[in-house]
Structure formats: structure tokens, C-alpha cells
Specification:
alpha+beta; six-stranded antiparallel β-barrel; disordered N terminus; 16 strands; disordered C terminus
């Protein structure tokens, strides 16, 4: 059966935030744009058009009879054995490290049980990743090794330079995340066309915008007359790709990292910030060539021991840490108080 934790967590979080705002515990700064991460103002996507896209799910069905009802993050295939995603999606959460399942070519999440599911057995986190939201999640990139090769999907074409940085180019974000803040919407894979925004304009939107680096790239989208929201990514899209239409070749230029806390916030010049793929090609190759050490290793014994100890799998998303440890998208009460004046990331609790 699908987990209900996602809905319960959101409802509890919303009540906490409303209560804290009413008490004046969460100051509102009109000049600041908060940060959070399904595609906003999107349209149904054909999985065959984006064969490198994958969804990340928590799947403990073999151990406690439960599995995630939706993707907690996205990613892309590097080849049939390795997946590229965001570090914050999985860092600091033991359940994610042990029970993540990757599914390529899943157009409708209702087909989860019949999909080409592959367990993650090794997790590689970039050594310079800082799970510090006030620092704007620098080096937010991770690689996952699968237990067995996928039988569907194809490897992503990764950008080799920043030559695509032009407002005249066409970019497309893809994901299974929310259609607007805290609204799941459809189970069908979504896509939305976006426009590049230069880093100086992008950084000016965030309180700690000076921490934005040239290894991050920003995008925005058109405003919908019906919703008043800009096209972009939302919760659950973290780790997923943004593609550049390079003469008909869908080339991945970024990994979804964070964006305005209100998905598609029309007052913001940007709707998402991405880790720039071209800056990490060397490290990615070192991982796939077997030259890096995994942060987490998962096998049947480790998963069985987890369930024996805790009774069932509990995915929390970890916590942000000022020093760079911990991670994930669902946060404790203490961090909620801090982040409302700062940032939230593009990941859902499952």
C-alpha cells in the first residue's frame, strides 16, 4: 500500500507554520524571496521524449510491505548502472541511503509496481557538497549506483561547457513533483519550458544571493494567467534535469537544487536554481570509473537490520546542518523557524 506519511507531514508542517506566523515567530521580509523546490504550469510529458529521466522512490515492500506513493526526487541515467541526482536528496537520511529505488521511463506513477525498478546499492556524494541552505547548497550533486542494470531508458547527454547560457535558447524542466506548493496534482510526468537568467539577476532575489557560484545556473518561466504562477519546478523535482534543446538533442545542463519557497512565485525573477552539470563531469567520470569511495552502501543485510531495529522504514529527509552535515527536504521544528527567513529545497517527504 502507498504511504500516507507524505500527506500527514505536509499537513502538520502547514499547521506549524501557520501557528508560528500567527505568533510572530516567523518574520516576513518582503524584500527577500524564500526558497523551496511537480512542475508548475507544466504539461503532460511523454517519457519517450526524455528517456534519461528517472524517479527516486522509497521502496521497502520486500521488508515491511510498504512503498512510496510518489517520487521524492528525480535524476537522470548516466548509463544503465549509474544515476545522477542532487546530493541533498539523499545525504543525511539512512532510509533514503538504504531503500531508494530508481525507475526510468515511468510516465504514470500509478504503474509503479509494474515498472523497471532498480535498487540503489551505492551512494556517492560530491566531497565539497555543503548541506547548508544559507550557503545555497554548493556542489549539490550525487551519483547512485544500481544493483542491476536497467532494461529501459538511455544515458543523458551532459553539457560539456556553458555555451548554452543565452536567453534565446530553449530549456525544459521535467519531473514528477508538485504542480504548485503542497499540491500533488497529477501522477503523469510533467514538463515546462524555461528561460535562462544570468547569475547576477538570480542572486539578487535571495537573501544570501552572494553565495551563488558560477557552478550554479538559474531559470525562470512564463506567468500563467489562470494561476498567476510562473512555470518552474516544485517540491519533488529536486535532482531532476533541465535540458537544453541543442539542435534537437536534449542535453542536460543542470540538476534541480532549490528555488522560491512558493513554487512559481511571480514576484521572483527566477523559479529554480540548478547545479551546473558541466562543472562536475570530471568527478562524475571518476565515480563511474570506480575511482571514488561511496558515502553509503546498501545491501539486503543492511536493509533487514534497519527494519529489525526500527520496525518499519521511516524516511524523514534528514535535517539541514550549518556545518554541512545532515540533509534532506523535511526539516525539524527548529529548522523550520530558521528557514522561513531563508530557504527550503525541492524535495518531498515520501
Amino acid at each position: 500500500m502507498a504511504w500516507m506519511l507524505k500527506k500527514q507531514t505536509r499537513e502538520i508542517t502547514q499547521k506549524i507554520l501557520l501557528a508560528m506566523c500567527a505568533l510572530g515567530a516567523l518574520p516576513i521580509h518582503a524584500e527577500d524571496v524564500d526558497i523551496a523546490p511537480m512542475i508548475v504550469n507544466g504539461e503532460d510529458a511523454n517519457a519517450a521524449d526524455y528517456p534519461s529521466y528517472v524517479g527516486l522512490y522509497i521502496d521497502s515492500s520486500e521488508y515491511d510491505g510498504r512503498y512510496s506513493g510518489g517520487a521524492y526526487c528525480g535524476g537522470t541515467l548516466l548509463n544503465s548502472e549509474y544515476v545522477l541526482t542532487a546530493a541533498h536528496c539523499i545525504e543525511g537520511d539512512l532510509a533514503a541511503g538504504l531503500f531508494t529505488t530508481v525507475i526510468p521511463m515511468l510516465e504514470n506513477e500509478r504503474n509503479f509496481l509494474n515498472a523497471d525498478r532498480r535498487r540503489v546499492v551505492e551512494v556517492y556524494i560530491h566531497p565539497s557538497f555543503s548541506n547548508n541552505i544559507t550557503a545555497l547548497l554548493p556542489n549539490d550533486v550525487a551519483v547512485l549506483k544500481l544493483e542491476t542494470s536497467t532494461s529501459s531508458g538511455t544515458a543523458a547527454t551532459l553539457a560539456s561547457s556553458e555555451s548554452y547560457r543565452s536567453s534565446s535558447n530553449t530549456f525544459t524542466a521535467v519531473g514528477h513533483g508538485n504542480v504548485r506548493s503542497n499540491v500533488e496534482g497529477t501522477t503523469i510526468l510533467q514538463r515546462a519550458n524555461l528561460v535562462w537568467v544570468n547569475n547576477s539577476v538570480c542572486g539578487a532575489n535571495f537573501r544570501n544571493g552572494g553565495n551563488l557560484t558560477d557552478k550554479q545556473v538559474c531559470f525562470t518561466g512564463a506567468v500563467s494567467q489562470s494561476t498567476g504562477l510562473k512555470a518552474g519546478t516544485c517540491q519533488g523535482d529536486s535532482g531532476g534535469p533541465i535540458y537544453w534543446d541543442d539542435a534537437g538533442v536534449q542535453t542536460q545542463v543542470g540538476i534541480t537544487s532549490f528555488g522560491p519557497s512558493t513554487c512559481g512565485d511571480s514576484s521572483s525573477a527566477v523559479t529554480a536554481v540548478y547545479t551546473e552539470v558541466s562543472d562536475y563531469r570530471v568527478w562524475i567520470t571518476q565515480v563511474t570509473d570506480g575511482l571514488e569511495t561511496p558515502r553509503y552502501v546498501s545491501d539486503d543485510l543492511a536493509r533487514s537490520n534497519y527494519v529489525a531495529q526500527y520496525g518499519q522504514v521511516v524516511y524523514t529527509g534528514g535535517t539541514f546542518a550549518s556545518g554541512g552535515e545532515g540533509g534532506g527536504g523535511s526539516v525539524g521544528l527548529f529548522w523550520l523557524g530558521l528557514l522561513m527567513g531563508g530557504f527550503l529545497i525541492r524535495k518531498l517527504p515520501s
